[in-house]
Amino acid sequence: MATINRTAFRAYKGRVFSITLTYPHEWPGDTEACKKHLKALRKRLKRMYGDFAGYWRLGIQDRGAWHFHLLLFVPPSFGKVKELRQFIASSWYEICGKLGEDHLQAGIRAKEVNTWREDTSYMERYVAKPERFPEGVVTGRVWGTWNEKLLPIRWETTKVSLSDAYKIRWFYRKLAKMRGRGHLRRLTVFARYENVVKLLEFLGYPQEE
Questions:
Q1: Has this prediction a pTM greater than 0.85?
Q2: Do residues 168 and 93 share a domain?
C-alpha cells in the first residue's frame, strides 16, 4: 500500500472492490484449506473477468470463524457490484463445499471503493491490523498480493543531499526504534506516500502533485 501514491490512484482508470469472505463458526477446516479455497476463487474470477490485481489477508473473527479480506484492483469489465457479489457468493459457496443456505446468503460482503481515503482506511482497519490467532495454530503466510504489476503504482525518485539523507535516516530509524550505525547504509522503509512527501517538502524538496 505504501507504493500507491495519491496521484497514481487518481489516474487509475479501473475500479476497486473490497471483499470479505467468511466461513461458518463450526467449519472444521484449517488455514491451508482456506488458502486453497481462495486460490480456486481467484481462478474463477480470472476466467470470468480477466486479469486483475489485489491484496488478500487471512484473519479470524471473534466468534472463531476464519475469513479473508480482499482489496481488488480490476478493469471496468467486472461490471456492477450486485452482479459481482452474486458471482462471488455462488462461487464461494460451491468452492467451500456448500456449507449451508446461511453461508450462501451471508458468506461474502462486497462494495466498490471510490476514494483514496476510503481505500486506505479499509486496508489499515482490516487488512493491516494485527491478528491474534489461537495458540498452536499454524497459519503460514497470512497476506499476499496478486499481479502486483497491475496495481496503480508509480515510482518516483528524488535526489537529496548527503546531510539530508542522514536526517531522513534518523527520522525513520527513530520511528522504527532502530539502532543507529556509523555510515549511511541502505534503509528500506514502508511509509505512506503522503508522509514521505511532507518530509521531503520540510527539507526543501517540493514534490509535484
A1: no
A2: no
Q: Are residues 123 and 91 in the same domain?
A: yes
Give me the pLDDT at residue 119, please. 57
In the numeric block, the cell 518516483 is attached to 156
Rounded mean pLDDT, 183-201: 74
Mean pLDDT of 122-144: 74
**Mean pLDDT estimate for the chain:** 81
DSSP state string for the chain: -TT--HHHHHH--SEEEEEEEE--TT----HHHHHHHHHHHHHHHHHHH---EEEEEEEE-TTS-EEEEEEEEE-GGG--HHHHHHHHHHHHHHHTT---HHHHHHSEEEEEE-SHHHHHHHIIIIISS---PPTT------EEEE-GGGS----------HHHHHHHHHHHHHHHTPPP-SS---------HHHHHHHHHHTT-----
Are 77 and 112 in the same domain? yes
Assigned domain for 11 exists? yes
For residue 1, tell me if it sits in a domain: no
User: Based on the domain organization, do 113 and 62 belong to the same domain?
Assistant: yes
In the chain, what percentage of residues exceed pLDDT 90?
22
Residue 112 has pLDDT above 60, yes or no: yes
* For residue 194, pLDDT beyond 80: no
Residue numbers of the domain that contains 176: 162-202
**End residue of a domain, out of 150, 172, 189:** 150
Distance from C-alpha of 38 to C-alpha of 58, rounded to nearest angstrom: 10
